[in-house]
Structure formats: C-alpha cells, structure tokens
Amino acid sequence: MSDDVVHRSLVDIVGEDYASNRPEETFIYSVDSGTEGPRQVDYVVVPATVEQVQRVVLLANQHRVPITPMGANLTLNGLGLPARGGIVLDMKRMDRILELNRPRRYVVIEAGVTQGRLGSYLEKNCPDLEHSRPEAPPMATVVGNMVIRGHGYLSLRYGNNAHHVNGMEVVLPTGEACTIGAGCVSPWPFCKGPLPDLSGLFCGWNGTTGIITRLSLKLFPKRRILDVIGYTVKDAGMLPELLYQVTHTDMVDNLFVVGIASADGRSRQYVNASITGDLDEEIAYKKALLQRIAVESSGAGERQVRFVYPVPDMIRSRFVEKPPYVSPALAADFQKGGGYRYCGAILPVDKIPDAWAAGTRIASRQGLTFLPGVQILGYCHSCMFGFVYPFNRAEEETVERVRRAMRETNEAVLEMGGIPWKAETGAQARIVQRMQPSTHDLMERIWRAMDPNRIMNPGNWGK
Ligand SMILES: Cc1cc2nc3c(=O)[nH]c(=O)nc-3n(C[C@H](O)[C@H](O)[C@H](O)COP(=O)(O)OP(=O)(O)OC[C@H]3O[C@@H](n4cnc5c(N)ncnc54)[C@H](O)[C@@H]3O)c2cc1C
Fold first, then answer.
1. Pocket lining for ligand 1, CB < 6 angstroms
2. N or C end of the chain, less CB within 10 A?
C-alpha cells in the first residue's frame, strides 16, 4: 500500500482500481494529441458517483492539491491537462443517460457521456430529435464540449453548444452539490427558468469554478432529408455578403467555408450549405431560393458567384455526414505522422478574407501547409475560423514550427479583434493581457468567493 496519504485517501473513496499515482498510469494523462505538454500529473482518480466527486474535492481542499476535471482530453490545446499538477479527475465512469423527455425535448446525462453514446442513444430511442454534435471524435464528452463553449452541426440555427444548456448539477470547489436552472425549484430541469443564469459561471471557465456532474441538454427536431448545395466565389472579399444573403433566407442549417484546389492549382474558397426537410418538395424549394442568390450576385461579365449543384461526390460525402467531416479531421492524414493543431478563432464574419490571408502568410513563413475551415455560427453573428496546421509527430523541428505558427496566429487573431477559442494556457495569458482589467478583476473575485483554496484547475485564465 502506498504511503502517500492523498493516494491512500483516493483509494478509500473510489477503490484500488480507480485511483493511481503510478507514473506509468499518470503519464497517459500528462499529454494530449496536440503539441502542448507533457505536464505533471500526481494522481488520477475515476469517480462513479456525485458523492465520490464531493469527497475528492474535500480531500483536495484539505491537502491543497489542484484538481483538473477531464472528459476525453480532446481539445488538442492541453485544456484537459493540469497546469499546476495535482489530481486529474477522469469523468468517464459517470456515463449514465438519466432521462429522455421527448415532449419537452431535453435529455439529462452524466458528465462522462460521450458524443457518440448520446448520438446513438437518440437514434435508437428518439429518432426525430438530435443534439448539436461537434465534429470531434465520438469519445469526446458532451459536457467537455459545453464547458469550452464548443459548437456542433446545429450551431448555425441554435448558437454554440453552451446555449443548449437547460441546467446542470455542479460540485462546487468547496464540495457542495448544487443544481443550476429550473431543476433547483421544479421537479424537472426543463429550462433555465426565469432565474439568474448561473450556468454562465461554468461555461467557458475551463473547469476553474467547479465540476459539472449532470447536464440537462436541449434537443432539436431532426428532419428526414439532408442535402447540400455549394457556391464558389471569384474572390474571398465577396464571402461576407454571400454568407449574409444565404443566412438571410433562413433556409440553411449549416454553413462552412473551406479551401478547394482549383484548375490553376490555387486554393479557392468553397461555401457549403446544408439544407434539411421532410419532403422532397421542401428541399427543391429551398434549393431554388438559394440558387437565386448566385444569379442575383453575378455581374454582367464573368460570374462572380457560382451555384454548385449537384455538389461533386468527393465534397458532398463529407457534408452529408452528421457531424460533417470538414478540414480538421482531414488534416490529421494530410501529412504522414498524423498530427495537427488548429487555432479556432471566434471572429466577426467580415474578417474571413483577412484571416484567410493571415493564415496563408503565417504558413508560408513557417514552411507549413495551411488548411482553413470556417463554420458560421448563429445567423452570421460570428464564425469559428479554423487555422489548421498539419504536422508529422516524428519531426520535432516541424512540431516547433507549428508551435510558432500557433503563437503567430493567436496574435493575428487578437489584432483582428477576434478571440482564440479553447485557447491553450499561453494564448489565454495573451487574451487576459488584452482584457479590460476590471473584467479580469471580476473573474478573480468570483474565484476568491467560490474557491478560497484555489484548487480548481489553477493556471487557467490567469487564475
Ligand atoms: C478531430 C477533431 C475535431 C473537432 N471538432 C470540433 C467541433 O466541430 N466543434 C467543437 O466544439 N470542438 C471540436 N473539437 C475540439 C474538442 O475535441 C471538442 O470540443 C470536445 O468536445 C471536447 O470534449 P472533451 O471531452 O475532449 O473535453 P476535455 O478536453 O476533456 O475538457 C475540456 C475542458 O473542459 C473541462 N471539463 C471537462 N469535463 C468537465 C466537467 N465535468 N466539469 C467541469 N469542467 C470539465 C476540462 O478541464 C477542460 O478545461 C475537435 C477536436 C478534434 C480532435
């Protein structure tokens, strides 16, 4: 038996098989598949119940040991890795789907439920409803994605995935379990209720304010037919107006801009729009309306915007998938060695042309390939511009160039007035430097009030 008192207490809480301080087991939690890390991990614990999570939190307070909650550790930017050592709290055993409520269109899940599990559960038990799945691998957790305010294939219509929260159960940094949303008053967690919106204390905070153990999530209508149409543009400067016109029709469910190779060997922008419906006539009507945009935006001479239908199979097959298979996933195979990083920048849509040019410049300076992929969020209210850089893991020199490209990209994004999304700790520090001091001071006061011993994932957001 270990003579480490924290380890012994963790074993007491969850049992021998689910707590470890052995280097060969903690090592796996010290790295992710991006270029961050390795980081120090002293203990790994895998709780099965809320009570066990509470006991781990009390123990961490007693010994002043940091805790980092972890879903699948798939951000690629090291957010599931501890910045200051301590305990990694792996949520995978808390994987029950607790309630599916079809008439009220919500589902209640535990924090370890993965995207793949929820997706297949809904397909089987409630095929006319769906949740907004990200393109992340199926083992990514729904809660981890919500915490980083991720986005899925319904984020054009319904906003990022943190907007789909009805409520949650959270273990606070001081160990109390607390219900957020209508469920704190009503028997049902069916909405946030006309209450102060406390879910904002946990979305976007990277686990620095507590551990989410349960989530009530909105579900949305799933239509029978999914088809795709596309546009090519003569130059990138035309994209913002085209995207505005397309979203203005209210006919589109998902909208991406990606680079495709054109006949002259250059990379051109291609806009892909998904349309859904229950009847073929509905799809035909939407298609006709969307085609008119291309006709109306064409000048007298050369076509400025071309409507693409049918979309070539090679592209279509990527976008009729749910979630679609866009550039980040392709990037891992782009170069031998299977690695890629991306800066997902949240930008105003009119900055897409500048961002495209900046990514091209940075990649060329660092001798890298640049694979852009842009997802429109809300009705053009913002976009996630993915600056994707593939690399070969075996070449440390290339990996270093990718790290440099990421730093340059983060700077360029901030200069454009955007904000790097799910930023690694270095980029978080740059964001905090630009933040109004009173805003960061408010964050600081919230941590002081909620987490007096500063055990919840310190080192993030300048905590
Ligand atoms: C190929 C690929 C494609 C991707 N595509 C998308 C995409 O389309 N959209 C998108 O949004 N993302 C995408 N991602 C990014 C990322 O993988 C996902 O957002 C993923 O859902 C994160 O979930 P996770 O379980 O890996 O979270 P983790 O990385 O484990 O955690 C993320 C953050 O949440 C915190 N956290 C985790 N669980 C809890 C909890 N229970 N309580 C409190 N804090 C917690 C962690 O401490 C960390 O700060 C992609 C990643 C890859 C590799």
1. 68-76, 79-80, 91, 111, 134-137, 140-141, 143-145, 147-148, 150-151, 206-207, 211-212, 328-329, 457
2. N
